[in-house]
Amino acid sequence: MYSFEYPYILALFLLALACSWFCQEKKRAIYFPHTQLLSSLTQSSHILMNTLRVLILSTLIIGLASPIKTEQIILDNTKGHEISLILDASGSMASFDKFRIVKEIMLDFISKRTSDKLALSVFADFAYTVVPLTYDKKSVIKMLDNIEIGVAGRRKTALYEALFLSSKLFNHSKSKERVAILLTDGKNNTDSVPLEVAIERAKANKIKVYTVAVGDPRDYNAEVLNYIAKSTGAKFFAANSATSIQNIYQQIDQLEKSDININQYDQKTYYFHYPLSVALALLLIYFWRKNTWILNK
Question: How far is CA 274 from the centre of its chain?
């Protein structure tokens, strides 16, 4: 990610702008008749010199602000968590604004997982992976924020298929902590993947599958969701309000806490020498043009 190490120095642009207006160079005045003719002769040179001054000041200020590129270096990716978020995007999630509420809670959850790999999958008529496991949290947040009901159909709930597909994301995982959080408000009503096949895939990849049911208990199968969670060493939760859903994700966040300080660091690459080099080159051009212009007058 590109940024400035000292962004407050960019405020000097305002000072430079003010100075260019009020801090005019004062010279001895010699009065000639027909000054309009002299002005037309020197106008182009003044424009060039003023442009050079602006560019020199701009590049100097950018250099002083120290542009940098920050990269997150992971020293040991076997100690962080890998978390797959599985979201029901079927039409029923539109009722009582559940989908919007759940997305906001998930976005908050993602923002707290600073050192984990995250993945995002959605399901309705079918399941698909939106983002595979990645440390690029911003991409996960952006994709989740843009997902709407209907992206995977609206009528069915391919819950087992989603669990199976999400479990495959861990096939080459080296992490010791593998977690899936499956949220739904309905019952599986497709036959694409049997329940036992989906659970066995999750168990084979050593994934703890937390299941979260939201909405009316008559709409989802609590027994199946509890079975999935217990079979994989996790927990089943049920919620019927925004507060209770928020509490569930906070509980999971605490249950799967990562040690965030020992496995990574930020590597900074500095680029201040580029704008400073440009400023130096422009400064040389400026003095050369100024002396040449004076000699030619």
Answer: 27
